[in-house]
Task: structure prediction
Amino acid sequence: MGNIAELEKIASQVRRDIVRMVHSCQSGHPGGSLGCTEYLIALYFSIMKHDTKFNMKGIEEDLFFISNGHISPVFYSVLARVGYFDVSELATFRKINSRLQGHPATEEGLPGIRMSAGSLGQGLSVACGAALAKRLNNDPRNTFCLMGDGEQQEGQVWEAAMFAAHNKLDHLIATIDYNGQQIDGPVDEVLSLGDLAGKYKAFGWTVLCCEGNDMSAILSMLNEAIDHTGNGKPIMILMKTAMGKGVDFMEGSHKWHGIPPNDVQLEDALNQLEETLGDY
Amino acid sequence: MRYQYTEKKDTRSGFGDGLTALGRSHPGVVALCADLVGSLKMANFIKENPSRFFQMGISEANMMGTAAGLATAGKIPFTGTFANFSTGRVYDQLRQSIAYSEKNVKVCASHAGLTLGEDGATHQILEDVGMVKMLPNFTVIVPCDYHQTKAATIAIADHEGPVYLRFGRPSWPIFTNPEEPFVIGKAQKMISGSDVTIMAYGHMVWKAIEAEAILAAEGFSVEVINMHTIKPLDVSAILDSVNKTRCIVTAEEHNINGGLGESVARVVGQNHPCPQEFVAVNDTFGESGTPDQLLEKYGLSAKNIVTAAKRAIERK
Result:
């Protein structure tokens, strides 16, 4: 599926899922979830070769590892909407006895989840390991990884960045959700990342930049990234997004990093997001 | 002495030789090392399987995450670095990327405990067993000599799930049977006796055997058990022994807090309350010195075990 209009319809529904999920349990992280909606839909509905009859090893499949696990609402919604499990299960998010834990977990056996993520900075290392395994298996498929921008403050990220370049993991395509916000405020005020593109270039990566809330742009960028695979360098996409994208009162503010809407705010948000595929 | 030895060797060499054997028998086994190939005795595996070895540099957190990623695809990763850098430095990675994510990673940790020697307290971790035994899904194993370390290294490859395998640096008596298969979770009775149980793991098993010889000469009947698997704990081995001896000494190259002693105390307290004495490091850091000097100074000698055993017997 590559039709932009179709993918945008899915995006509207996924955004409804996100705000309804965090409203229902009155917890969770809507901001980053709304900002990464186009990216995850592009990956799962268009870019990646993957099998919704989930197999942990993912041999001959493209793999995706989420490192910023707090944006689990968008991850779960996209996994459900693409067919890994029934959308009705989204109603259980963050509730007792659910497979949809606050942060992704393998323990509950939710199809589509290969790793736990939540404590930041670990996902790029895991993606490096998965990419190494593909190389050992002569499996040519790609490994994708999504991180947050605030997460770049974790030292382990740079260990993995060094390792990926040294080992020429050129089927590794990482993306940073570059929304400029973290819990305590703008990233530039909390702990500036400086020239992030320059840093990854200096570490030996191919660095690409794109607008992440434009479905057409993100699809083009992911395809361009795939064109760069096999060139001896890992690939980093700096993806400019707006935290809270799609809901006007959430957009662009770190305040909606980890706060759920109340009843009135939910109604306001849903009025801005067309129900295209039917609510769960 | 009930056991004799003709040769001494470091347990880390048992790991290295076990890994070499796995390289030949288990195509899924891969190895990672954080700039300590020589110390971990991994050179032979690397020579025979260059494409299955990953030099990680001095970046242990990345090593644990990379191992988890390799395990996701069905590989059996063995990570190698010092025990300090295998646990305390990477506890969150062990917790989230390996234990909680249920990854089949074998965390192989050398230079544990005081017997690391001259490098001193920065490297002499005495808290690792406690840290890892608290992580759900982890199995914790500390073999007692070269042969057993080799056998344990081979055995954990066929065990599905995260394993912490702890071994050490010093040359140490070899006294187990090289033909004996290693059974995870099954305590090994080294000597049968009826007056007191001495339960030890790692290097301290040999110290327990030395202590038994001293006690036997004084007329005591001592049972020595090698509790090489700290988790899951062989509860029936503990209870079978204390049902007979009615008192127990635990001996370990570890902080008294969080070690085997506390695990045994829980089992005994719940099922068969009886006197227990603890031979362990008394909540301090180590220091530079030779292994023997350090074991002596920090109360982990055969004499210390003898004294503890007599105290336990008196308290019955």
